[in-house]
Target: Thioredoxin reductase
Amino acid sequence: MIGRHMQRTPTPGSTLDALVVGAGPAGVGTAIALGAVDDLLFGVVERGDIGQTFHDWPTHQRFLTPSFTGNGFGATDLNSVHFATSPAYTLGVDYPTGAQYARYLTTVARHFRVPVMTGTEVTGVDRDDEVFVVRTSRGPVRARTLVWATGEYSRPRLPKAVGSGLLDHSSTEAAWALREGRVIVVGGNESGMELACHHVERGSDVLVLDPDTPWDSGRGSDPSQRLSPRTRIRLAEATATGRLELSDRPVRRLRTTAGSIVLSLDDGSTESTPSRPIAATGYSPAIDPVGSLFALRPDGLPELTEDDESTITPGLFLAGPSVRHQSLVFCFVYKFRQRFAHVAGVIAERTGHDRSPLEEWRENGMLTDDLSCCGIECAC
Ligand SMILES: Cc1cc2nc3c(=O)[nH]c(=O)nc-3n(C[C@H](O)[C@H](O)[C@H](O)COP(=O)(O)OP(=O)(O)OC[C@H]3O[C@@H](n4cnc5c(N)ncnc54)[C@H](O)[C@@H]3O)c2cc1C
Model:
């Protein structure tokens, strides 16, 4: 694949056909798809290093989607960003840590010669006629289209409880450190369960609070709605110790009293712990510099056309886990990668290029443009 499609390297002052912001899996994957289009002038800017989010993951955090090199038989590694690559092959592990996955992304970006300018933060975006003028820490970049791929990790979400500043978010190293007394985790989805199991495995008593009881089965077959097999196995082991309690009581308020943190719960009861409780309550989209260029859905996520384009700013595309189409959630790599080649194809057409080389992505099962097929439930 490399060498068949030549890409032109951006030069200072030129107007790109496409600028990708962020070099995580969404940015790197979309850039590789753009690189398949002959003569398309594009580049990627990244405020840290390639895969910066994964460099920032706590040391104990691992992927929950397994990697396995099934690529040759139509079952591309779930964590790949291109069908000719596999983290399981590159790394020799099935559940990569953040540092390992960052190594995979860097290897892939180098292999496909993705033009990434690291250490370059986007601080704002202006429009000059039909062109985006992107303000970066290294000066302005002009581009006809923009792919926003800055993920969610830099926007940790805390629960709406009073005193939520007393919580350590799951994205911090502190949340994984050994804690004094009973560990309280607010939020029982994947991250909450992973942390709960982590602390039970290290000998702590753990209480998990979540009114939505994500640990219940019978939530359909979409892994965005139900716990992964790996987490379920760990949850069963943690439950068997007798040191894990799961509760559907929502937290209303947190306060400190005499060396303890007291949580007031919805039913009038309280729980207390000598160490800071943990918030495993997810993330919000990191769209700040372009926030006004997207209309928002009632759930606060960017509203998109069927081409993952802003409904109010033509030429601005979103890639990554914040992509939603009605109730379809694209929060895993194996989901949002299905849109890399679609977005690249729309950009190719808009900028007068041939999108047909991207059919190779479809042939390899990595291009979904008919979204009606994604909601299938497993029969058994
Ligand atoms: C704890 C945890 C576990 C997860 N486990 C899995 C899993 O098992 N399987 C799975 O598929 N997914 C998993 N995910 C989700 C997955 O990690 C994310 O969906 C994925 O990282 C999103 O990729 P992205 O490229 O959109 O964003 P990121 O990987 O966050 O990349 C965004 C990049 O944009 C850069 N950036 C941000 N703002 C700017 C700016 N203004 N200017 C320039 N650059 C900027 C950042 O430095 C970063 O490198 C997990 C997430 C978390 C938090």
